[in-house]
Amino acid sequence: MIDIKGITKSFGSLQVLKGIDLHIERGEVVSIVGPSGAGKTTLLQIIGTLDHPDSGSIVVNGINVGNLSTSKLSDFRNNHLGFVFQFHQLLPEFTAMENIMIPAFIGGKKTGEAHRRAEELLDFMGLADRSTHKPNELSGGEKQRVAVARALMNNPAVILADEPSGSLDSKNKDELHKLFFELRDRFGQTFVIVTHDESLASLTDRTIYLRDGQIIETNCNE
């Protein structure tokens, strides 16, 4: 699903990634861990085509993203990738349903089709009765589940999550972690999760340890 070879990235004189090679199978849930400044978020942003490497290649879902024009890269990102961040990034003026539907509208889908998909996701998330609520009317856990549903709207092949449970309390954190695996089992997505949360990392199929811009260890978790 994701094949990365020789990725490097520098910001000025600071080399953040130093030749990353990584292969992630379809349907894997992989965590990337390491100390602050290790390059975790930079690597995730490069996988997500939100940033460009200085060198190396990235193939996602069979597509070499380095060969895509700016417009095709935007279409690829919207159709093949879903993003979940530490803070939900919901638009405050829109309802839960409307927030979830945004990627579909960007992709040019018809309103009826988008509405049906959003209803399916809200139901799966246990939020069917919250569809007309705006973010300020939702709990922290509900907001993050809406954000996950939005990431799933276009049925992307890959979900990229950056500290997705970092702002949640223990109960909501555990529920979100469980949700990722339920989603993988139901929809077949591949998950790449940057986290400092050891309990989440231990649940994933594989943990990638990053330090000083290099992969220093890979563990398969049982």
Automatic annotation (TrEMBL):
List, alphabetically, the GO terms of the cellular component aspect: plasma membrane
**Which one GO biological process term can you cite for this protein?**
protein localization to outer membrane
Q: Which Gene3D superfamilies match?
A: P-loop containing nucleotide triphosphate hydrolases
**Which UniProt keywords are present, listed alphabetically?**
ATP-binding, Cell membrane, Lipoprotein, Membrane, Nucleotide-binding, Translocase, Transport
Source domain of life? Bacteria
Where does the secretion signal sit in this chain? none
Q: What is this protein called?
A: Lipoprotein-releasing system ATP-binding protein LolD
Q: List the PANTHER family hit by this protein, alphabetically.
A: ABC TRANSPORTER ABCH.1, IMPORT ATP-BINDING PROTEIN
Domain ABC transporter: start-end pairs: 2-222
What Pfam families is this protein classified in? Answer: ABC_tran
Alphabetized GO MF terms: ATP binding; ATP hydrolysis activity; transmembrane transporter activity
